[in-house]
Amino acid sequence: MRSESVWVCPSCRSALAVSERGARLTCTGCAAEFGIFGGIPDMRGDRPAWIDVDEDREAAARLERDFRSRSLEAMVRAVFESQPGRSQQQIDMRTRQVLVAPGRLTTQLDGWLRVPTSRPGFLDLGCGPGMLLAAAAARGVSGLGIDVSLVWLVVARRMIEQHGGVATLCAGFAESLPLRDASTPAIVSLDVIEHVGDQTRYLVEIDRIAADGATIALATPNRFSLTAEPHVHVWGVGWLPSRFQARYVRARSGRAYDFVRLLSVPGLSSLLRRHTRFSGRFVVPQVPEDEIEGMHGRRARLARLYNRLSDSPLLRWPLLGVGPFFRYTGTARTRRHAQAT
Predict the structure, then answer these.
(1) HSE (CB half, 13 Å, CA atoms) of 332?
(2) Model confidence over 106-134: pLDDT tens digits?
(3) Whole-angstrom distance, CA of residue 298 vs CA of residue 190
(4) Can you tell me whether residue 136 is helix, strand or coil?
(5) What's the CA gap between 111 and 167, in Å, rounded?
(6) What's the confidence (pLDDT) of residue 2?
(7) What's the CA gap between 331 and 215, in Å, rounded?
(8) DSSP tally for the chain: helices H, then strands E
(9) Which residues make Cβ contacts (< 8 Å) with residue 28, sequence separation at least 6?
(10) Which domains does the chain have, with CATH numbers?
């Protein structure tokens, strides 16, 4: 057995050893074993999630086997085609979005994500198909990727490699991260916190792995947005008490509403203050111009009006209250300073 240097046991955080054939990892502390699929460790435990872990492993194995010699586009398209309820138009649109995302992320890497994604070894938590990691790799910056879906990690590995990077990926849960304490210089987690089973634990884990002075960038839809809920396209979901939301969504749309819990700015601010060392600010993001170009008529006009309003300092807090989404950027205080306060 040889030592594995990046990942640690998600349960006891001891070092891992990899078998000579590279088929599994074994914890040197608690002796837990974890499989390796296509070079990607699977360190998901037995935790409630929106994904069926066993089905995901089987799907990832099929994707790795059947698309090893085919294009990235074919691989991405196959993933969307396997998802029930998607029309051909939706499959085509989503496939294009994933493929062009690394290029479109340039604006964000030059903007609000510039600091965290310029630090080698930054973590993209909930990396999905690896678009952000690929965009950073194209600039010569290597990051780590963790996602609950092994299927998307198989895609992410291909995407990162095609953009000149080396993929360092792991399947895991955000509530039990397979990383050492204070080991991570920056964390980016976009549209993830609303899907985790335990939001408090998610933030506690981010705080645990964050080095002193680490930067964080979060993005999430706004619970109290005046627009429709973005996952199920039903208006007014977030304005209801949490216990009524799933029932309301099912009545209005016939769709399930599990593992979605939107936060407001005050809600996330309270969680960050109580469970992390991060201090920072909330930002009203603009709708990217390339997205607006794909809109038509009234929707495009409203998006451009929203962008103009978001530039006004007087409207910042109202838009943070009822805008469709928001961002948070912060820096971790030193542990000594946090304990003193």
Answers:
(1) 27
(2) 989 999 999 999 999 999 999 999 999 99
(3) 28
(4) helix
(5) 24
(6) 44
(7) 4
(8) 14, 12
(9) 14, 15, 16, 17
(10) 1-37 (no CATH), 38-215 (3.40.50.150)
Q: Report residue 40 as tokens.
A: 């990607």
Contacting residues for 142 by C-beta, under 8 A, at least 6 apart = 120, 121, 136, 165, 166, 168
- Find the distance separating the first CA and the last CA of the chain, reported in whole Å: 44
How many whole angstroms from its chain centre is CA 272? 17
Both structure tokens of 131: 């678009």
Strand-strand pairing, 122-125 and 40-42: unpaired
**CA–CA gap between residue 298 and residue 276 (Å, rounded):** 41
Overall pTM > 0.90: yes
Q: Give mean pLDDT, residues 257-277.
A: 95
Task: Choose among 180, 246, 237, 247: nearest CA to 214.
Answer: 180
Q: Other C-beta atoms within 10 Å of 197: how many?
A: 16
Query: What confidence score (pLDDT) does residue 277 get?
Result: 97
* Length of the chain in terms of residues written: 341
- The residue whose two tokens read 């903007």 is 111
